[in-house]
Design goal:
Blueprint (H helix, E strand, L loop, with lengths): L1 H41 L8 H9 L3 H33 L2 H5 L5 H38 L12 H20 L2 H23 L7 E6 L13 H4 L8 E8 L5 E4 L11 E5 L2 E4 L3 E2 L22 H12 L4 E7 L4 H29 L1
Antiparallel strand pairs: 1-7, 2-3, 2-7, 4-5, 5-6
Helix pairs in contact: 1-2, 1-5, 3-5, 3-6, 3-7, 5-6, 5-10, 6-7, 6-10
Length: 363
């Protein structure tokens, strides 16, 4: 049965192998250059005091391939599920060839598991090879960014779990729907829905998030212009996965989210006359602003063009003695989360396979 399933599936396998060969050639040629440039130039830029321009130029190199690597790790499993998993059984029912298969010496369960085994193995191998190449190719960028969770979905071992789950999901949907095109569409959107659900609501709680409270530092007060220095100096670290960034008043009341004062991370200042200004959500500023800031009302202030205005804003914010509460997952949990997520999708795949076998035997 496995040999027969392989003969049915050999065209798709040959096409996938050809695509992987092309990808390997592209990654090999460009990846060797990237690794050499990183090892010889980027790693030693500090000794030349020119890291800003060097890292900026390096990060902008091979931009198209960077997007391809990130999107490939996410889209490839969905495509495997839609084009390999969904037609696996649906096409048999649509064409009526299942009747011939079920009158042979093999049982329905053997027929189904033989088809599952071939396609699942091909999907796992395809995803593993692509992910291994993509992870190696993107290693210099990952070292430079030092943010492992930013590429979590497209690196290392979790895409293998996505691929296995996608093909078993597609096969199960095809078994229930019995129409190839409809099964392909349902598989693609169902896979995306499950991915969003697990990524946003399950993954952050694989382990209890850690908490860190520190004095509030507005984004435009950071010397780097990026993440507040509270994150990197004694806090979670720039490579941690920040789940929430809540702003608290001196009494512990929540007054802002996303690093700002308000639900969307904004900083609103209104002039009330007599050289007095109000910081939205807090109260009257003790200092005067160099110019009426009414035109800034309702807008988010990041790094403004007026240094005097920014200094006045800092003085006003600091006078309220605010605090920042971070909940986060440290970078040390990256591999633990990789294994947890892989196991989650393997379990889901096993459940879908069991459902498919039950459905074929009973229906």
């Amino acid at each position: 049965m496995i040999w027969f399933s392989w003969r049915q599936f050999r065209t798709q396998t040959i096409v996938a192998a050809g695509i992987l060969v092309v990808v390997a050639i592209v990654f090999g040629i460009t990846g060797l250059h990237l690794h050499h440039q990183y090892d010889t130039v980027v790693k030693h830029c500090a000794s030349h005091a020119d890291c800003g321009s060097v890292t900026s130029a390096f990060q902008s190199s091979d931009h198209l391939l960077q997007h391809f690597v990130q999107a490939g790790g996410i889209l490839l499993p969905a495509l495997l599920g839609a084009f390999w998993g969904a037609p696996l059984v649906a096409r048999e029912f649509e064409s009526g060839t299942f009747r011939l298969a079920w009158t042979q010496s093999v049982s329905r369960t053997t027929w189904l598991m033989g088809k599952f085994a071939v396609v699942a193995l091909a999907a796992v191998v395809t995803s593993a090879l692509f992910t291994a190449m993509a992870t190696w190719w993107a290693t210099p960028f990952d070292h430079l960014n030092n943010s492992p969770f930013s590429g979590f979905d497209a690196r290392d071992i979790v895409p293998i779990g996505y691929a296995l789950f996608a093909v078993t999901l597609g096969a199960a949907i095809g078994l229930l729907v019995r129409r190839t095109v409809a099964a392909m569409a349902l598989t693609f959107f169902s896979f995306a829905g499950v991915r969003i659900l697990l990524t946003d609501y399950v993954r952050p709680h694989f382990a209890t998030p850690l908490r860190y409270v520190t004095a509030f530092i507005a984004p435009f007060q950071s010397s780097s212009g990026g993440a507040p220095s509270a994150i990197t100096k004694g806090g979670p670290g720039a490579n941690a996965w920040i789940l929430t960034d809540t702003t608290l008043s001196r009494t512990g009341k929540v007054i802002g989210q996303n690093g700002g004062i308000g639900p969307n991370g904004e900083f609103n200042v209104d002039s009330i006359g007599h050289h007095r200004d109000v910081l939205g959500g807090l109260g009257i500023c003790p200092n005067r602003f160099p110019s009426p800031p009414a035109h800034l009302a309702g807008q988010r202030i990041n790094i403004g063009p007026n240094p005097a205005m920014m200094r006045a804003m800092e003085t006003c914010i600091n006078s309220f003695h605010l605090q920042s509460l971070f909940t986060y997952q440290p970078a040390s949990r990256f591999w633990t989360f990789q294994w947890y997520e892989l196991a989650s999708y393997v379990v889901l795949s096993a459940l879908l396979t069991s459902l498919s076998v039950w459905w074929v035997r009973r229906r």
